[in-house]
Amino acid sequence: MSYEAHSNQTPTARPTVSFLGCGYLGATYAICFAEMGYEVIGYDIDQEKIDAFNTGTLPFVEKGLPEMLRRNLESGRLRFTTDIADVADAADVHFICVGTPQRPGEHSADLTYIESAVVSLSQHLKRKCLVVGKSTVPVGTATWVEELIERHTGGEYGIEVGWSPEFLQESNAMHDVMRPNRIVYAARSEWALNLLRAAHQGILELAALEDREVPVVETDFATAELVKVAANAFLSTKISFINAMADLCETAGGDVAGLARAIGYDGRIGNKFLRAGIGFGGGCLPKDLRALTARAEELGVGDSFHFLNEVDTINTRRRTKAVRAISELADRPSGPAGPNLEGLKVAVLGATFKPDTDDVRDSPALAIARKLAAARGEVIVYDPEGLDNARVEAPELSYAKTLSDAVENADVISMLVPWEEFRTLDPESLGAQVGQRRIFDGMNVLEPARWRAAGWTYKGTGR
Ligand code: UGA
Predict the structure, then answer these.
(1) What local confidence, expressed as pLDDT, does residue 333 receive?
(2) Closest by Cα among 321, 314, 272 to 289
(3) Tally of structural domains, the chain
(4) Beta carbon of 442 within 6 Å of any ligand 1 atom
(5) Does residue 330's CB lie within 6 angstroms of at least one atom of ligand 1?
């Protein structure tokens, strides 16, 4: 649907919007919506976090976002609070952005934070408004949220629910919020749909200014909820598929990077999310994949989703395979008890789940570093941004403050996260610092010929 089609239907008045839960998702949305001219109030129960935002400090790494935060605090359009009554009073549209982590010991999603956000908001609502879910949830959650609101407001004020999944990628978050490749939302009434249109008007206006179109999918609750998990499951499947091909290439003597490039030229396949390597991690793909499988089981269609268990297994197996590859590279082939790296210094370059973030949640790199240490290697981890979080997540590992400290006299370099600082390394100058010129290129970002020419033993993935 084009911007013009929408501008006819959308009220020009901008609703005041709130974002409940100021993690990566809620905070980025709050800041970007203020940038697009909305009056915005961000809410979180964590006072320390709220104080940080209000003083212009972003508690996570996202390029460009701190400047945008400060600019919008100064404009007076953006503020953060822990006072839910204030939020309930101020906003016309409340976006629920709290986390839905994997339940410990289970595959399903934990909806505790959704419940507490919706209940505490409902207890303070005193007028008609729209509550819109953005968190990634199992299908059926929107209807449950309607029931929660009904129960805690006594059905007064006719408060309505909408659902609008988000697709932002960490490290590209501002772009994905303000210039999304699609907008998806669902609501039950024309009143609620109009409010959702008005709440997205800023994105469509920006697109019109830049002569772009943003497709809008208006749909039902179940579809809106499923779109998000379907997208993440599909992306995960692409990655595991190419990683399975990497195994085959390695055995048969092919090159998975060339293979990915060649199949990617087919528009039906596409060239994105086909980078073979150490597998996917982060706070979203792994847990969403599992939550989708668990929900499908609950709804009696689990059979159709068993393949996603395999996608997950292929992915976690990447980590063991990487450790095996590293130990072979160091001339320590695995014995029956697994690899033994005793006496070897292994420099691990990268701790985050991908570059340009400080997020180490379910990070393949950190998991591999732990396995290397468990194999008795003397492991030293370096990461440009993720060291603080890594130290909390894996306190048993040793960390270096600089790349040079990490690689000094190393017997093997494991380059696991393709940060620019690593991609642009010079084989000669790095070679002068290490003990042995051996490098494992976990995400296939180096040019093997160049490294080999400089006397390195190079090992990539599936090549
Ligand atoms: C993912 C989705 O891409 C977003 O669209 C979604 O909104 C978000 O989850 C979410 O659910 O909130 P994100 O977790 O930020 O975004 O990270 P991705 O860029 O998708 O990368 C995920 C993992 O896949 C990383 O570990 C990355 O290294 C790995 N990856 C990615 C590969 O191994 N190969 C590839 O070709 C691409």
Answers:
(1) 83
(2) 314
(3) 2
(4) no
(5) no
Q: Which residues of the chain have pLDDT under 50?
A: 1-11
Alpha carbon distance 417, 350 (integer Å): 5
Statement to judge: residues 337 and 389 lie in one domain: yes
- Tell how far the Cα of 280 is from the centroid of ligand 1, in angstroms: 7
pLDDT tens track for 414-435 = 999 999 999 999 999 999 999 9
What per-residue string of b and e applies to 267-293 under the rule 16 or more CB within 10 Å gives b?
eeeeeebbbbbbbbbbbbbbbbbbbbb
Which pLDDT does position 12 carry in this prediction?
Answer: 55
How does pLDDT run across 189-213, given as a tens digit for each residue? 999 999 999 999 999 999 999 999 9
Q: Quick check: CB of 274 below 6 Å from ligand 1?
A: yes
Question: The domain that contains 429 carries what CATH number?
Answer: 3.40.50.720
> DSSP 3-state assignment of 428?
helix
Q: Per DSSP, what are the bridge partners of residue 185? A: 218
* Same domain (yes/no): 49, 184: yes
Instruction: Using the 3D structure, point to which of 216, 243, 266 is the last residue of a domain.
Output: 216
Contact 196, 219 (CB under 8 A): no
Q: Is 8 exposed, middle or buried (0-12, 13-18, 19+ CB in 10 A)?
A: exposed
Q: Which of 216, 232, 254 is the last residue of a domain?
A: 216
Same-domain status, 123 and 257: no
